[in-house]
Amino acid sequence: MGLLDGFKAWRAERQFKKFTRNLSQSINSRLESGRQTHEKWEKQFSWYEGIMINRNEFRNKDVMESLKIIRDLNPDASMAIWNFLRLSNNGHELECQKPTGSNDKQGLDYIISLAKRVGALYGGGMDQLINVLNLTGFTQGAICLEVELNEGLNDVVDFHAVDPSTVDFRKDKETGEVQLVQKQSDGTYKVLNREQVFYLPFDPDIGDPYGRSPILPLLQIVFFQVEVLKDLKAVAHNQGHARLDVSIAQEAILTNIPQEIKVKGAQAIAEYANAFVKSIEKQFSQMKADDNFFHPDFIQVGMVGGTAGKSMDATALINIINQQLVSALKQLPILLGRNEGTTETHGTVQWQIYVAGIESIQRGVKRVIERAYNVALQVQGKQSKARLTFNKLRTTDRFQDAQAEQIETNTWISRVNQGWADNNEAANEVVGHDAVAEPQAPISTSPAIARSRRVQVKRQPKTRADDTEDEYVKEMQGDWVPEVAVLTTKAADDFYNLLQNQVETYINRLEEADTPPTRVLMDVHRFMHSNTRKDLSDVPKSFIDWIKSNILTDEGEQLELWDAAGFDWIEQSAKIAGMYNIMEIDTELVFDDTDDNFLRSLSDRSRRDAELIQGVTDEHVIMTLWDIAFEGQYSLTKAANALREDFAFSKGRARTIARTEMVGAARTGQWHSDKQSGMVIGKKWRSAQQDRTRDGHREADGQVKTLDEPFYVQNANEEFEPLMYPGDNSKASADNVINCRCWYKRILEGEEHLLEGGE
């Protein structure tokens, strides 16, 4: 380092120290340690073990038990629960990812096997346990799950759903820690291990960690409904049925009183009249429903009540109660059998809101179950993380979406025709990439021809329309080479567009994240004088974590993009090579490009390549930004420019990816076509024998194997790796397949002597 360079480095370090010192002094002069406010349940002085955080009076255990009873007995509540559980547990997917972001197949196999045996109390299986948690969350506004481990702490015994109303929170008066506790049979409280018992509230209030039940208002409405129904029952009995109206003519009774009764006085007359009336009451009470009336003229029979009477119309009151029930149960009226009129637009909005409510409960269940799975992986000695994803509920109409897309497409066609936009601009807005050909006028065709044309167009490459052959692939031998060379050029353009979209996405996130936090910059400063910057192991963990949490936040989505794009291209290359290869053996043979083994191998290859490509991209992003930070003059402009100029997002890398993918896929198609022919029994490795040929590949030249046996080829670390054919990446490292142009010579039936080393 020259004198001038040394002076610049010294001044930069001095300015950085001055900046951090001033920043630290500024922060310390304004900030105070500890909490300055307190919760409503906290007390200044406490002589007992801890401060209990009491539940709201409407959310205590008795209220929750009442809510459970009404939930199961009330028809509307039962229907609401039924609908919610059917929609909220409509299937899910499990993933397991290593810290590097790649898939952990062993970890995934373990948690899948675990999912089959947990929740034994409920019949076994994670699906059933999810139902229990969803039900608890919807009823009580919280979910609680415990992970039970075996005595050796190396495996999971079971996952237990815990009733949230049986656990409480308290604050330890010494440490200030908020503890999750459960009351024991002897009256004491046991502190639960938060690493194994997970409590998650929904919509908690300030200072209230217990959560709020979504259907708690149901209690008030149901109690009111019960009272109203009792009153209506009484009214119905009193006014709803026609009844006999029996009257007795008093004069007729007095006229017909026997003379011997009359002479006995008023008392005897009254007793006689009362006995006469009671006898009439008895006779009418003993009448059967189909008896005919027969009575003297001093008894008159009429009808009262029934349809002739009028009473209060209870319909309006019942409608109000129904509306309150719908609101309390967070349901759509139609789901409870209430066919209220509404517009299609309003109905769609209501459905979207309802689905959003379901998804909020699902997110809570997802978090708790993922934490439980992560504990299971941890005790197995794995650092991988589980990821659970519920199947999406559709919130829009597919037909309407298709109509809207058609209108937007026609609008862009009109813009191109009017000269307001070019073809590539329209193509990028509609399908996300440059146009594959020039605009064509619509042609009227029969339905059969139209269907055929759609199939042909679907098979065309999704990129530009030129036929330039890639020079690297063009040098290889084989009837399939010219077509694959053209595909490689087109694939390189497609991959370059994908890389450019990636880097712009990362730069946008970089701008949103702004500069790294002070603690990260402090770590960077410490590393500047004690570490090199050769690879990721030299980068501070805090800096890597900041990049992953702010920039590389959608690795799964990027993997899917690479997987989808890669599969489209390698499928075309493999099919072309397979078709030409089998024709070389026998022109009567036809390559089956729908074979399950063939397509599965392409799918697996595409996924492996996507993980490798994205992993390299992530490492480049981290190291590029680390280089900027390491220089001590981090800025958004420098970071953005460095990313745009990095090889990871260059045309050169896109070309390398395309060549590796297309040639490797072609070799895959060759091997499967050889296997389908039934005439190929062996193979002989042939290296390209060029200046760039790897030493391991050069040494493998002449290696002979049967068709189903792998070659063993040294990688860059001088380790032997199995390759079923040149470019096979199923078990080989990247340095053994990238830009490989080796091939193998077929050994056919009748050439068995060649398998034994003969000529």
Summarize it.
The chain is an alpha+beta fold. The chain is 52% helix and 12% strand. The longest helix has 36 residues, at 344-379.
Topology at a glance:
Layout: H1 3-30, E1 50-53, H2 61-73, H3 75-88, E2 92-97, H4 105-117, H5 126-140, E3 142-149, E4 156-161, E5 167-172, E6 178-183, E7 189-191, E8 197-201, H6 218-239, E9 242-248, H7 250-255, H8 259-262, H9 266-285, E10 299-305, H10 315-328, H11 344-379, E11 385-390, H12 398-417, H13 423-431, H14 447-459, H15 471-474, H16 481-513, H17 518-528, H18 541-550, H19 555-585, H20 596-630, H21 636-645, H22 651-677, E12 680-686, H23 695-699, E13 704-706, E14 711-714, E15 720-723, E16 743-748, H24 752-755
Helix pairs in contact: 2-3, 3-5, 6-10, 12-13, 16-19, 16-21, 16-22, 19-20, 19-22, 20-21, 20-22
Largest sheet: 4 strands, antiparallel
Number of strands: 16
Envelope shape:
elongated
Strand order of the largest sheet: 1-5-6-7
Helix content: 40-55%
Number of helices: 24
The first-to-last residue Cα distance is 62 Å
* Beta fraction: 5-15%
Briefly note the structural class of the backbone: alpha+beta
Unreliable residue stretches: 44-48, 443-465
Tell me the radius of gyration.
Answer: 40 Å
Average per-residue pLDDT, rounded, comes to 80
Structure description:
This protein has 24 helices and 16 strands. It has helices at 3-30, 61-73, 75-88, 105-117, 126-140, 218-239, 250-255, 259-262, 266-285, 315-328, 344-379, 398-417, 423-431, 447-459, 471-474, 481-513, 518-528, 541-550, 555-585, 596-630, 636-645, 651-677, 695-699, 752-755; strands spanning 50-53, 92-97, 142-149, 156-161, 167-172, 178-183, 189-191, 197-201, 242-248, 299-305, 385-390, 680-686, 704-706, 711-714, 720-723, 743-748. The strands form six sheets. Strands 1-5-6-7 form a four-stranded antiparallel β-sheet, with no helix packed on it. Strands 4-3-8 form a three-stranded antiparallel β-sheet. Strand 14 and strand 15 (720-723) form a beta hairpin. The longest helix is centred in the middle third of the chain and has 36 residues, at 344-379. Mean pLDDT is 80; it is low at 44-48 and 443-465.
